């Protein structure tokens, strides 16, 4: 029994390291049935006529969030909730050309040879909106976050 304990500990550490992403965020597609009822109730109350196209469970460090993906017509493309049904963030996809000129210029400087995959406006509770971009650079996806003035707030490579 005493010999098994170190082996179990090593196995648990290996599994924990192997299951996390470089950015520390794990996103797993789930069914609507797997979404906590407070999340679904809150979503349906806020966006009663919206078509749900998918759901995901996102783990960031010790925090858990639930993403509801929509058609983007009568609600933001992605609405993110805490497990108790509080809206934490919304994300709306936009074309690169709709970014303010200062943000477009900052993106060109930050990634002159990158290929833009996704551009979103992200709005978190009680915080100013930011622009989140996924850019393909040398075969890897790099996530950039810029404020409304074009200042780079964050950059993460996958």
Task: Put the structure in a nutshell.
With about 160 residues, the chain is an alpha+beta fold.
Topology (SSEs and partners):
Layout: H1 4-19, E1 25-30, H2 37-46, E2 52-60, E3 63-70, E4 78-81, E5 87-93, H3 101-110, E6 115-124, E7 130-137, E8 140-146, E9 152-157
Antiparallel strand pairs: 1-2, 2-3, 3-4, 4-5, 5-6, 6-7, 7-8, 8-9
The beta-strand count equals: 9
Secondary structural class: alpha+beta
> What is the level-2 CATH architecture name of the largest domain?
Roll
Order of helices and strands: HEHEEEEHEEEE
Radius of gyration: 19 Å
Shape descriptor reads globular
The CATH topology label of the largest domain is: Nuclear Transport Factor 2, Chain: A
Give the helix proportion (percent range). 10-25%
Mean of residue pLDDT values: 86
Strand content: 35-45%
DSSP summary: helix tally: 3
CATH class of the largest domain: Alpha Beta
- Count of the domains: 2
Sheet with most strands:
9 strands, antiparallel
Sheet with the most strands: spatial strand order: 1-2-3-4-5-6-7-8-9
Low-confidence stretches: 1-22
Provide structural commentary.
The termini are far apart. The chain folds into two domains: 22-88, Nuclear Transport Factor 2, Chain: A; 94-158, Nuclear Transport Factor 2, Chain: A. By secondary structure, it is an alpha+beta fold. It has three helices and nine strands, in the order H-E-H-E-E-E-E-H-E-E-E-E. The chain has a nine-stranded antiparallel beta sheet with strand order 1-2-3-4-5-6-7-8-9, covered by helices on one side. A hairpin with a 5-residue loop joins strand 6 and strand 7. The chain has helices at 4-19, 37-46, 101-110; strands at 25-30, 52-60, 63-70, 78-81, 87-93, 115-124, 130-137, 140-146, 152-157.
